[in-house]
Structures are given as structure tokens and as C-alpha cells.
Amino acid sequence: MTGPDLVVGDDGLARPAWASADPMLREYYDTEWGMPVRDERGMFERLSLEAFQSGLSWATILRKRPAFRAAFSGFDPEAVAGFGESDVERLMADAGIVRNRAKVLATIANAHATLALRSGPDGDLAAFVWSFRPADTPRPTTPAEVPTTSPESHALSKALKQRGFAFVGPTTMFALMEAVGLVDTHLVGSHRRGSSGVWPA
Q1: Which Pfam families match (predicted)?
Q2: How far apart are alpha carbons 99 and 92 in whole angstroms?
Q3: What's the confidence (pLDDT) of residue 1?
Q4: Known catalytic residue: 58?
């Protein structure tokens, strides 16, 4: 049974409207969004892209993702931490990415902060983010029921800022938590609900 906010595709699978029309978004929804990301580089990439998405559509970021990966050395934190002023100017001249100086500088700062986490008691970036997994997950039946923040996203935001990260507000961190599997906000009735293995359907 599907609700009015789910669209059944030509493959017979139910998806939310945002993931039904655009083939790129449909592929992302079907294969990646909400699946657990537990490696440092993968988490750094998602954190970086969520920061660049702030104020823009996710479709814009997803279309530019290959260019972002090329521009930021595959989101290798060690490589990005080594970026200097010439790299900043190179990035600001790269039409393939979002040319926002504050976000570019934040990504470099976040790479430094990611490396610093390794030597602390919190583990790497992925382990640190996963330590904020909530005890339960939302079970939305409509898009209006999907939260935009949570107590855990506020706590994660605060903890990351204390460790030198930037562009990690609570709304951005909730989007990250959705993207990497800490919460499951797939609508009840979607074919992806419960697919991460982290939460039951």
C-alpha cells in the first residue's frame, strides 16, 4: 500500500516525487541515499557536498559531483588539507563546481579537522559521526513529516564546530545523517524503507 506522496514507477516500485522524475535523482535514491557510509573519505565527501548544497538544490550538487571529485582530489582529506592559496584560486576559477569562497575555505579547514580527529579519542570522522546515531528513527508517511533537524543533529553540529569544522549547522547535519544512514527518512511505503539494514522497515 502506498500513500499519495509516493509515485509508483514503470518498474512497479514506489518512490517519493522528488526521486521519481529525474533519472539522476532516481538512481541516487535507489542506490545510495540512506545507505551506511562508514569510511573516512566517504564521510568527508558527503560532509563537504552537504556544505556546498546549503542554499542550493541537491540536484545541482549531484550533477556537479564528478567535477567536485576531480577538483578536490577525490575528497582525500590529506590531499585537501594540503591545498594552499593557489588551489583556492584554481577552485574559484572552476566552473564545474560551486564557486563559493567561504565553502571552499571551509572544505579545506574541514580536511584539517578531519585529520586532527584521527589522533584524538573519538576515532576517525566516520566513527565520530556514527557515534551520534539516535536510539530511534522517524517513520514519515508524508514529506511534511520528515524532520529537518533533531536533537542528535544539533549535538553533532555543536561537537564538530568545537573540533574546528565549518558549515556544519544542525539542518546540514541532519541531511548528512539522512544521506549516510544514521536515520531512515524514506517514506513508509517506499521500496527503499528499511533497505540500509540499520533500521527495520
Answers
A1: Adenine_glyco (PF03352)
A2: 5
A3: 45
A4: yes
Residue 70 gets the label, from left (phi > 0), alpha (psi -120 to 50) or beta, of alpha
Verdict on whether the full-model pTM lies above 0.85: yes
Q: Which helix (H) or strand (E) holds 26?
A: helix 23-31
Q: Distance between CA atoms of 33 and 31, rounded to whole angstroms?
A: 7
- Residue 78 annotated to the active site: no
Residue 123 phi, psi (nearest 5): 80, -170
Check 29, 40, 45, 50 and give the catalytic one.
50
Q: Give how far the C-alpha of residue 76 lies from the chain's centroid of Cα atoms, to the nearest Å.
A: 16
Give 122's pLDDT tier (boundaries 50, 70, 90): confident
pLDDT of 164: 96
pLDDT value at position 49?
97
Q: Hunting for cell 516525487 — which residue is that?
A: 17
Q: Do the Cβ atoms of 49 and 65 come closer than 8 Å?
A: yes
Residue the block writes with cell 577538483 = 71
The residues spanned by each domain of the chain are 6-179
Is 28 a residue of the active site? yes
Buried b (16+ CB within 10 A) or exposed e, 10-21: eeebbbbeebbe
CA atoms of 171 and 149, how far apart (whole Å): 5
CATH number of this structure's domain 6-179: 1.10.340.30
d(CA 99, CA 52): 9
